[in-house]
Every structure is written in C-alpha cells, then in structure tokens.
Amino acid sequence: xxxxxxxxxxxxxxxxxxxxxxxxxxxxxxxxxxxxxxxxxxxxxxxxxxxxxxxxxxxxxxxxxxxxxxxxxxxxxxxxxxxxxxxxxxxxxxxxxxxxxxxxxxxxxxxxxxxxxxxxxxxxxxxxxxxxxxxxxxxxxxxxxxxxxxxxxxxxxxxxxxxxxxxxxxxxxxxxxxxxxxxxxxxxxxxxxxxxxxxxxxxxxxxxxxxxxxxxxxxxxxxxxxxxxxxxxxxxxxxxxxxxxxxxxxxxxxxxxxxxxxxxxxxxxxxxxxxxxxxxxxxxxxxxxxxxxxxxxxxxxxxxxxxxxxxxxxxxxxxxxxxxxxxxxxxxxxxxxxxxxxxxxxxxxxxxxxxxxxxxxxxxxxxxxxxxxxxxxxxxxxxxxxxxxxxxxxxxx
Length: 397
Ligand code: SR1
Ligand code: MG
Known about the structure:
This protein is 50% helix and 12% strand. The chain is an alpha+beta fold.
C-alpha cells in the first residue's frame, strides 16, 4: 500500500511503472506513456494514461471536493467505488468498467478506459445520444438491485454486504444534505438560482410546511429502507455511451437504500433534459417508459428464474405471487416518483446543477425549463404515493 499524495500526471506514470500488470497493459516503457487529465465530475481527479499497447483510466480521491477546495472531504470514496464495482459486476457484467487495480493508500482506482464513449449528459446536450439508451439503464438497475436484494441473498449475506457500504458516511451525508434537505432551507448558502426569475418558486418551496412533511417521507424512505445496493448517484453524468454500449460509472455513492432512489434520480435527469432542450420532450418520455419497462423485465426475470436464495419470499413460488409483484413494483414507483421530484429541485436551485439548462435555446427557454422543473418536482414529491404506474408518472411530468 502506498502513502497518499495527490498524483500529478508524471507522479501517476511513475507509480504505474511499478505495477507489472498495468505496465504490460500499457506496453513499452514509462517514457512512452502519456497521462492526460480529464477530470469532469465534482469530486475527484481523473487521468487517461495511454501507452503503445493500450490505455487505462485512473481516478484518485482528493482530500476535498475538486470543484470547491474549501470543502474538506475524506479520501475513502474511491474504496467504496471499487467495492461497488466488485459487488455488482457479477450481476451486470460489461455494463460497468472493468476494475484493474485499487491502491488503498493512494485512494486510486485504475480501470478500463472507455475511450470511444461519451458522457451521456454531454451526448444529450449535443444531440448525439442514440435513442433507446435508457433500456440499458433499466436493465442495469433491475439486475443490480435484484442481485443485492433480500430475495436473492440470505439475510446474513445482505447484512455483510450492507456493512461494507454502511461506512460510506461522507458521500451519504452529501446526498442527505444536497438532495434531501438543503433546497428547502432558506438559510442554506449552498443554494443558488436564477434570481429574480425563480425567487417566487424558491420562496414557496422553502415556506411550504406541507411540502416539507412530504420531503420528510422521502427522507424516511432513503434512510430506513434497505432494499438493495444502490448506485446512489445515477444521473446522466454517471453514464458513458458509445452506440449500443452503455456503461454505468462513478459508483462512489453506493449504499443500501430504496431501489426507487436510483430510478427516480435518472428519471428526473431525463425530464429536465426534455424541458431544457427543444425537441427532446417526447424523446425523453419514451426513454422514461423504456427505463421502467426494462427495469421491471430484468428484475422479474431474476425473481422468476434467477434462483431465490433469500429469506424474503422463501414461502412462496415466484410464479404465483402476482399480488405481491404488483405491490412491490408500485412501492418502487412511489419511491421513484418522490426521489425524481427531489432530484429535479436540487438540480435547479441546489449546489450541484446541470449543464442541460444551458442548452436551452435562450434565457427565456432556460427560465421556463427551470420553472417547470421546480413546479413538477414539488408536485411529484407531494403526490409520490398516489402515482402507481409509469403512465400516471408520464401524465404528470
Ligand atoms: C459535492 S458533490 C455534489 C454532487 O456531485 C455528485 O455527482 C453528486 O451528485 C453530488 O450530489
Ligand atoms: Mg460522479
């Protein structure tokens, strides 16, 4: 295990040169390699290292938030990301990147370089994302959620897996604060919004005690429902895409929680893209319908045929529990609706906002998109437990 130091491009090359497997993967000698920083997310540094025979992607934690160095942050997040990759890869195969190496001292992950892929959010903003991508994400959530659930695993195994992620405190704190709390607090200096155009809606969100009770219900779901191992940050910036090949990256927020959290977060990002970009609205509705159908299909396929070793459902035949299936998917839908509402609000007035709004055709279009997101988000949170089906959700957005 190495001692921690933030790696520059040349320090990273020196370090990789000490690792025979990675040296073989890159080919040639260290002097032949090029390391290029491609950091894009809020938290970490990322380099692509290329040699004569191949390339790798290297991600290192910093002791602070990359985009806000005054915000101190423990280094451990890379370890949780590696654990997430190890935990879900048997169920999702090539829908994530391959993990080549983890250095627990440097808090460094070395993984497959998705060189021909593009971040889905950028592909949407530039209009080059292929239709149908959301089906792959639905499959991913269905397979990962079932494989880590109480249906698939004996409770002893779920407890063991849940324990591995239960210390992911710093990033879970980010979610609890940034997604589930901050936007509803008028005194929170991390919030920012287009002012004065959104002032009336922001004040209404922050003064609405009935809404805050509905938010509390979603806080309760996030904190007290341990249905499956979540990705925990499944927005369109956590997906890489190249034609049909769709990969889920950045599992550092992984934690046990309600399955609808991942689905709701992804749905919200599609809805906001549809509001922001002219001509995308019907397309995003289609993607949301595909996401849900493929999630349901993948989860059910494993439920019916995947071999149930879990204690949950041990008394019933998978094929004979239609009522239970309906109840289960309705509950996931309720959670997805509520968390979609929270994600829409925080991405519009909270600390971490989205580039999609800047792709609106003009300022009036951006204001309109942001206002729609705030109004729809609020309504989704309030009506979460009344929206039972994907059709009802689509009618609502
Ligand atoms: C301080 S981190 C802000 C946001 O970036 C990540 O991608 C998560 O979405 C987090 O909420
Ligand atoms: Mg990320």
